[in-house]
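Exercise 7. Given the components listed, write out the predicted structure of the assembled complex. Treat all entries as one system.
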Amino acid sequence: MELLEIRNVSQEFGGLRALDSVNLQVRQEEIFGLIGPNGAGKTTLFNLITGIYKPTEGQVLFRGRNIENLPPHQISRLGIGRTFQNIRLFRKMSVLDNVKVGMHAVTRAGFWGTLREWGYSRKEEKKIDERARELLAMVGLYDKRMEYAESLAYGEQRRLEVARALGLNPVLLLLDEPAAGMNTREKEELIELVAGIRGMSITVLLVEHDMNVVMNVCERIAVLDYGRKIAEGDPYSIRNDERVIQSYLGVGM
Amino acid sequence: MFWQQLINGLTLGSTYALIALGYTMVYGIIQLINFAHGEIYMFGAFAGLFLVTRFGVNVFVAMLGAMIFCMLLGMLVERIAYRPLRGRSSRLSALISAIGVSIFLSTLMVLIRGPQTDRYPDTIEISSFSLGPVQVSSLQVIILLVAALLMLGLQVFIHKTKMGKAMRACSEDLDASSLMGVNVNRVISFTFALGSALAAAGGVMVGLYYNAVWPYMGLMAGLKAFAAAVLGGIGSIPGAMLGGLCSGVLEIFGVAYLASSYRDAIAFGILIVVLLVRPQGILGKPISKKV
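Answer.
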C-alpha cells in the first residue's frame, strides 16, 4: 500500500516551475531514494510534503489523506519527520533537549497543559526523557547529551538531526542529503543507521548525491531533472537508464 | 549619596527590565519590535488602579489582576494586528502595524477616562528605614523583590517547562520548530502573553512608585525599556534584565551627578555610546553576515 502519494504536483515560484506535474508513490516500509542534479526540485518536494510550501497544483496524500493544505506542525504530528540539507539544529540547546522538542510536541504541550504541567505530567516527562536517551544511544550521541548542539562535530550534528526527527515517532522519515560532507567511515555508519531505522518499520524517503549511499540503501529510486521525473525503478535499472546517465550520472558510473 | 542613588537606580531599572523583557522575547521569536508594548504597560498600570479604586483590593491582588488582563490584551493585539501579516508581507508592515496599535491604545485610554494624570490611593503603608547611610523605602524593597521574583520565575519557566523549551526552539529557528511539531502560532501567542504580564506588573509598580499614571506614560517608558533591551542585546533574556538595571542606574546617576533636566538625553546618549563600542549590545551575539 502507498504510504505517501504525490499526485500531479507542480510548484511555481514567480515564473519558475520548480516542479512540473510530478507523480510519486512511496510504499510502506521501503527506502525510497530521490536523486537528480542540483536545482532539480528535490528539496522543494520535501518542503511541499512537510507543509512549508503549498503546491501550485496537485495533491499530497499521506495514508490516503490530503495533507497539502495542513500547516507544518500538524503534518509533523501525523508522523512525518525530516532532516535538513543545511543543518538546522537548535544550536543553543542541549543535545538531549533538541530531541525532546519534537517529542513534547507530539505529546501535546498546550497552553493549559503548560499551566497544569507541574501537576500531572511528571510520568510523561520521564517517559520522554528515557525515549530521548534511547534515541541518542542509537545514533551514538548518548555521551554527549548534555553538550550544546553547536559544539558537536559535523557528522554528529547530522546524526542528531536524525535523532531529533525520530523523536516525533514518525511513520515516514525524510532525509535531505544526510551524507553531505561526511567522510567514508561516517558514511558507512550512516548506511547502518538507515538500515536500523528501517528495522523500526519506518519508511524512509532520501535525497542524496552520494551514489554509493543511494545504491546501497535504496530499494527504489526516482530521478528528477528540471522539476520533472525522468525515471523511476530499482537501483540496477536506474544505473543503466540512458536518460539518467545523460542528465545526471554521467558515463563511467 | 552613591549608595542611595544606586538603590534608587536599581528600583527604576528593575521596572525597565520588566518591560524590556517583553520587547526582547517577542523580538527573539519573530524579529518584531512591538511598539505597542509600552501601551500594554500603561494599560497594566490603569487596570491595577481600576481594581484598587473600584474594588478596593490589595495592591498585590490588583497587580495579579492587571497581569492577567494584559496577558489577554497582548494576545489579542498579536492575533488582530500581527498574525494576519505574518508570512504574507514584509516585517516592515508588522512594525507599522505596531506603531498603529500603540497610538490606538493610548488614544483609547484618553477616550475612556480623559488625558489627566491619576494617582494610586495610599493603600500600602510606606515606611522607610535606614541601611547605614542609605534611606530605603518599603516600596522600593517591594519593587525590587517582586521584580526579582518575576524574573527568576521567568528563567525557571523558560528553562524548565515544555512551553519554555518550545519558546527557545522557536527563537532559534521557527521553520525547524514547526517541522518538529511545535505549534508556532501558539508559542508566539504565549510569548506575547508572558511579556505583557511582566509589563503590567511593571506598570502597577511604577504607578505606585511615582504615584502617577496617565495615558501617555507608555511612550517614554516603552522607548527607554526598548533602549534597555537593545543595550543588553536584543533577543537575549538575561541581556534585557541587565540592560534594564544598567539603564535605570545610569539614568539616576546622570540625574544626580549631572543635571536632572537632561534625564532622557542621558538615557539615550548612553545607548548610543554603548552601541558604538559594542553594536550587538552587552550580552548579544555578534551578527556575522555570510558572504
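Discussion: The longest strand of chain A covers residues 2-13. Residues 1-79+173-178+203-253 of chain A form a domain with the Rossmann fold fold (CATH 3.40.50.300).
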